[in-house]
Amino acid sequence: MLSQLPHNDDPRLLSRDIPCADAGIYQLTDDLLLLQSIDFFTPVVDDPYLFGSIAAANALSDVFAMGGQPITAMNMVGFPNCLPIDVLTQILKGGTDKVHEAGATMVGGHSVEDEEPKYGLAVTGTVHPDKLITSQGCHPGDLLVLTKPLGTGLLTTALKAEVLCENDIDEALRGMARLNRYASEAMRRVGISACTDVTGFGLLGHALEMAEASQISLTISPSSLPSYPHAKEMAETGLVPEGSFRNNRHYMPRVTGADHQAQVDIDLLCDPQTSGGLLIAVHADRLAALCEALHQAGDHAFVIGEVANGPAGTMELV
Ligand code: CO
To answer: What distance in angstroms lies between residue 65's CA and the mean position of ligand 1's atoms?
Structure first.
């Protein structure tokens, strides 16, 4: 997510005029857009190979959300000199394997000494201008489809607190390491209205950014949101990540109907996601085809709500 960019007159910088663009969009030629995105974070799991895979899948996600193809990736590494170098080797192997799975090439990177390990990628991709998918383009009557369950923020917080172990959250770990590539290819084949990926602002934040960009409202039923095993249990115990409170404070003022909802469902709605799924708006006529294509790709297709005609940039919970 881009914000607070300095003023720039370059007419080729298309992302300046697309609210909530997931990556930088730069027009190279009449039929080629350059997509650039970067993300990195501290370990969400102990296993270094898995951490590398998840961080890379997360960083590659923006290009897939925009309907693009990643071409190259560069490592961004922070690493303490007190840790064995084999840990770093495993992180980089996890990241590189994921980049290859994405169909891209790892071209290098940069590392600095740091107190805590940090890892992620700078990703460069391309897309034809006619094939670019953004968060603009939702129409009233479109259905909202989510391709991964929610709850990774709650579960990784519980992991850090040692309330759960990695075995307990196996499904979420596989979900976070899964590329959005296959879901992206499926939605491109079917043809959809708009898409964004669900990451740190939670489903609530990213859905509202979509509503804002498309100048429409969204209707979502929190009690039917899909979640990974144990995520709701963790919310019930009150073990909620800090980012969830931030999302709640920032976005809830644009939401109506929250008073009738259970707190765990609100927690899930606000839960910051690591390498979350795609949130896709699709015309009702194409919903069945999209769900079919996603299932064939091995992805989930949760229908979680719809696009409505209410005040632009708002959400109604029902
Ligand atoms: Co994104």
So the answer is: 7
CATH fold match for the domains 2-131 and 143-317: no
User: Percentage of the chain surpassing pLDDT 70?
Assistant: 97
Average pLDDT of the segment spanning 221-239 = 96
The whole model's pTM is what?
0.95
The pLDDT of residue 7 is 73
Q: Span 192-218, mean pLDDT?
A: 97
Q: Does the pLDDT at position 1 exceed 70?
A: no
User: How far does the centroid of ligand 1 lie from the alpha carbon of residue 119, in Å?
Assistant: 17
Q: Quick one: 151 exposed, middle or buried, by C-beta within 10 A (0-12, 13-18, 19+)?
A: buried
| Distance of CA 198 from the midpoint of ligand 1 (Å) | 6
Q: Which two tokens stand for residue 106?
A: 């790892």
Fold held by 2-131: 60s Ribosomal Protein L30; Chain: A; (3.30.1330)
Per-domain boundaries in the chain: 2-131, 143-317
Q: Closest Cα partner for 183 from 96, 296, 24?
A: 296
Q: What is the CATH number of domain 143-317?
A: 3.90.650.10
Ligand 1: distance of its center to the CA of 64 in Å? 9
